[in-house]
């Protein structure tokens, strides 16, 4: 079984650290915490001064609206980070919530460990800042892809666009998505029953096949290819 240092080394920020450097400079600055399903790691309008590496489970990033509905932005699984985009802003105030979608464990540490000089050897911190920039760029691209999906007017068009992006990312017509059916509906901003009905129609038409969150695209010409 992996120890904590080995788990943290797989994260985007600490992939350039040796295990000894993680044990010396990172682990003493943070702490592990377990979360029950439904627990809030981050609440809207909360100031976020710590970053969290997901060690196990899954954390959903949600935008909740005044009428009680919500939109799912992303599902973060090991070894991804939660709160990186917030900690890099001047206010650090969260516009969204981060909720444990299942029993989870995280390692949280002060954002200033990386953002401010003095807590890490400076050459190591500068290298970590470079990886932070890459991670933020990837996060931005994920949000751009989500906007691309939501810009599609019809339900089927949103399904096709989302599954096309998943296939391109994995370079395969068979893949597993990180969402349950309810989460997929929230990500697409559609009704769950309508989503299930449309997926069943697409399966009957021979466009795709699926079992829970495993999908296979059968009529590849029906799905636009990414560049």
At a glance:
This protein has helices at residues 4-9, 19-26, 84-87, 112-115, 122-150, 155-170, 181-188, 192-204; strands at residues 31-35, 40-42, 50-56, 59-64, 70-76, 81-82, 97-100, 104-110, 174-176, 208-211, 214-217. The chain is of the alpha+beta class.
CATH superfamily caption of the largest domain:
Jelly Rolls
CATH class category of the largest domain: Mainly Beta
The CA-CA distance between the termini, in Å, is 39 Å
Number of domains: 2
Q: Which consecutive residue ranges, at least 5 long each, have pLDDT under 50?
A: none
What is the strand arrangement across the widest sheet?
Answer: 1-8-3-6
By DSSP (H or I, 4+ residues per run), the number of helices equals 8
Largest sheet: 4 strands, antiparallel
Structural class: alpha+beta
Just name the CATH architecture of the largest domain: Sandwich
Strand content: 15-25%
Overall geometric form: elongated
Q: What is the number of E strands?
A: 11
- Share of helix, binned: 25-40%
Mean pLDDT: 94
Q: Can you tag this structure with a few keywords?
A:
Arc Repressor Mutant, subunit A; 11 strands; 8 helices; 2 domains; elongated; 227 residues; alpha+beta; single chain; four-stranded antiparallel sheet; Jelly Rolls
Topology:
Blueprint: H1 4-9, H2 19-26, E1 31-35, E2 40-42, E3 50-56, E4 59-64, E5 70-76, E6 81-82, H3 84-87, E7 97-100, E8 104-110, H4 112-115, H5 122-150, H6 155-170, E9 174-176, H7 181-188, H8 192-204, E10 208-211, E11 214-217
Helix pairs in contact: 5-6
Written description of the protein model:
The protein is of the alpha+beta class. It folds into 2 domains: 4-122, Jelly Rolls; 152-222, Winged helix-like DNA-binding domain superfamily/Winged helix DNA-binding domain (Arc Repressor Mutant, subunit A, Orthogonal Bundle). Helix content is 39%, strand content 23%. The protein is built from 8 helices and 11 strands. Strands 1-8-3-6 form a 4-stranded antiparallel sheet. Strand 10 and strand 11 (214-217) form a beta hairpin. Helix 5 (122-150) runs antiparallel to helix 6 (155-170). It is elongated and about 60 Å long.
């Amino acid at each position: 079984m992996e120890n904590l240092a080995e788990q943290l080394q797989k994260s985007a920020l600490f992939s350039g650290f040796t295990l000894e450097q993680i044990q010396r400079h990172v682990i003493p600055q943070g702490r592990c915490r377990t979360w029950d399903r439904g627990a809030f790691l981050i609440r809207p309008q909360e100031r976020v001064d710590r970053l969290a590496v997901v060690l196990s489970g899954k954390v959903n990033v949600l935008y909740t609206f005044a009428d009680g509905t919500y939109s799912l932005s992303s599902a973060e699984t090991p070894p991804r980070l939660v709160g990186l985009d917030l900690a890099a802003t001047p206010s650090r105030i969260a516009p969204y919530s981060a909720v444990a979608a299942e029993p989870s464990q995280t390692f949280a540490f002060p954002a200033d460990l990386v953002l401010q000089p003095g807590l890490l050897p400076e050459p190591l911190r500068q290298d970590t800042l470079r990886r932070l920039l890459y991670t933020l760029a990837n996060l931005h691209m994920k949000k751009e892809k989500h906007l691309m999906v939501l810009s599609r007017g019809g339900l089927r068009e949103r399904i096709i666009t989302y599954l096309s992006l998943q296939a391109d990312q994995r370079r395969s017509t068979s893949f597993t998505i990180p969402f349950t059916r309810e989460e997929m509906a929230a990500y697409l901003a559609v009704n769950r029953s309508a989503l299930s009905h449309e997926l069943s129609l697409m399966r009957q038409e021979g466009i795709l096949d699926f079992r829970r969150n495993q999908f296979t695209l059968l009529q590849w010409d029906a799905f636009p290819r990414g560049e």
